[in-house]
């Protein structure tokens, strides 16, 4: 019927056939009415949906459903990064999706830390795990994203060591200013050190940016 709305609830996949299980209802007179039915139906059937798909392993889900979808939604370079990160998620490969609890994810963090994996890399791995479990939740394979519940690690910012004036003086004296190339490098490093500009900011400078009157 024209002017009506419909809603579809995904209940996951059949373990035997691999086909997506959905429940659909049509004939709603408004989008709000359709949304209410969707929310109620999803909440009411989520438990049975998760139980029905509880035997699916993380690796099976990733290979059969997530990565094919991820490939269509990302650029090739982003996809390749995802493939590389997936290798570090092997901790979950043989686990059932339904068994990946917050405490399991925390144990995974601890294992990576024991391997001296950097906090920044663990952070990026956790983000990818969260994307995967988001998709699993969307398809009704898990009732919630436990990567969100567990929380990510804190990214540690590396300490930046600045040169002292003595260290800079020792360095800058190594340039032979009689040579054109070295004089140019001498000028660049001198300018960067005493202005605090970044390389990109220096490259963007034009003569208009320099006030020769206020030296």
SSE topology sketch:
Layout: E1 5-13, E2 20-28, H1 31-52, H2 58-73, H3 76-87, H4 102-114, H5 119-138, H6 146-150, H7 165-172, H8 180-195, H9 199-204
Antiparallel strand pairs: 1-2
Would you give an account of this structure?
- The protein has 215 residues and is mostly helical.
- The chain has three domains: 43 residues, no CATH class; 93 residues, DNA polymerase, domain 1 (Orthogonal Bundle); 40 residues, no CATH class.
- Helices cover 55% and strands 8% of the residues.
- It has a two-stranded antiparallel ribbon with strand order 1-2.
- A hairpin with a 6-residue loop joins strand 1 and strand 2.
- The chain starts with a strand and ends in an 11-residue tail after the last helix.
Structure characteristics:
215 residues; mainly alpha; DNA polymerase, domain 1; 3 domains; elongated; DNA-binding; Integrase_recombinase_N; Integrase_catalytic; DNA integration; DNA recombination
Q: Please name the CATH topology of the largest domain.
A: DNA polymerase, domain 1
Number of domains: 3
**CA distance, first residue to last residue:** 76 Å
Sheet/helix structural class: mainly alpha
The low-confidence parts are none
Query: Any guess at the CATH architecture of the largest domain?
Result: Orthogonal Bundle
Output the helix-strand order: EEHHHHHHHHH
Q: What summary fits the major beta sheet?
A: 2 strands, antiparallel
| Inertia-based shape | elongated
Q: Roughly what fraction of the amino acids lie in strands?
A: 5-15%
């Amino acid at each position: 019927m024209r002017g009506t709305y419909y809603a579809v609830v995904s209940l996951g996949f059949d373990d035997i056939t691999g086909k997506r299980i959905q429940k659909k209802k049509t004939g709603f007179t408004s989008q709000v009415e359709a949304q209410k039915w969707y929310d109620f139906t999803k909440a009411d059937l989520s438990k049975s949906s998760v139980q029905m798909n509880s035997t699916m392993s993380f690796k099976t889900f990733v290979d059969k459903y997530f990565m094919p979808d991820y490939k269509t939604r990302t650029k090739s370079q982003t996809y390749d990064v995802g493939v590389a990160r997936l290798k570090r998620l092997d901790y979950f490969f043989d686990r059932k999706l339904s068994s990946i609890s917050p405490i399991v994810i925390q144990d995974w963090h601890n294992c990576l830390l024991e391997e001296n994996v950097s906090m920044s890399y663990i952070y990026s791995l956790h983000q990818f795990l969260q994307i995967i479990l988001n998709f699993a939740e969307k398809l009704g394979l898990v009732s919630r994203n436990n990567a969100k519940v567990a929380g990510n690690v804190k990214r540690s910012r590396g300490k930046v060591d600045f040169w002292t004036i003595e260290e800079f003086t020792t360095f800058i004296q190594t340039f032979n200013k009689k040579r054109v190339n070295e004089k140019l490098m001498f000028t660049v490093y001198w300018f960067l050190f005493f202005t605090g500009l970044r390389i990109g900011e220096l490259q963007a400078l034009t003569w208009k940016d320099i006030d020769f009157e206020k030296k």
